[in-house]
Amino acid sequence: MFREHIIRRGQWYIRRLWSWFLNATMQSYWEEIDNCKIKVFDKLTAKAEMVLEIGIGTGSNMSYYADCNLNVTLYGLDPNPKMKKYLRKSAAKAGLKPKNFKFKQGVGEAIPFKDASVDAVVATLVLCSVSDVTQTLAEIKRVLRPGGTFIFLEHVAAEDGSFFRRLQKLLDPLQQRLADGCHLTRNTRECIMEAGFNGGVEIETMSMCSFPWITRPHIYGVAYK
């Protein structure tokens, strides 16, 4: 028991140190990713009045919804119920009316919504961490109405055989442990292309210049049901 306690405390300190390190060194990344988010949220049309964001976290995307459509009703899905109080604050700060934001506890692999019930689904830096990308994409398709849109922004695996890909493979186990299951080597682009979005898929690629360089390759775009 004492040994397990020491291990748990050690893991807790490592996570705290990692969080501090990321906050201290990643400001330029968040600024760069903000420019990318502006591009991807421009694809969220005013017709999308009922939107689901999976892995919403503390609500870092809230302001983009208010900018796109004042009439939007946003459902935030997250496995952590404690996020709800932070999300309420983020929604108010972003200008979303209390009636226009609703929190749902759940995961992307089993979305607690009826078939064809939302106009759009949003996922930013989420598919790297879900336990099953294929199942999550199938769930996204299921809950989308005909003609609905899936908006995404993700970091992905580097090109096969490249130095970055080899480095990602080496660091992937550590990344998963320290970053809540985040994978460095997922071929998310291919997963989205093979998911069967019959309305087509538009994918843009970009390389982030900011730290951490190990997640340099990113994709963003929209898939249509």
UniProtKB/TrEMBL annotation:
Q: Which domain of life is it from?
A: Eukaryota
Q: Which residues form the Methyltransferase type domain?
A: 52-152
What would be one Pfam family of this protein? Methyltransf_11
Which Gene Ontology terms cover its molecular function?
Answer: S-adenosylmethionine-dependent methyltransferase activity
Record-linked PANTHER family: METHYLTRANSFERASE LIKE 7B, S-ADENOSYL-L-METHIONINE-DEPENDENT METHYLTRANSFERASES SUPERFAMILY PROTEIN
Could you tell me what this protein is called? Methyltransferase type 11 domain-containing protein
Organism, per UniProt? Microthlaspi erraticum
Could you read off the lineage of the organism from its UniProt record? Eukaryota, Viridiplantae, Streptophyta, Embryophyta, Tracheophyta
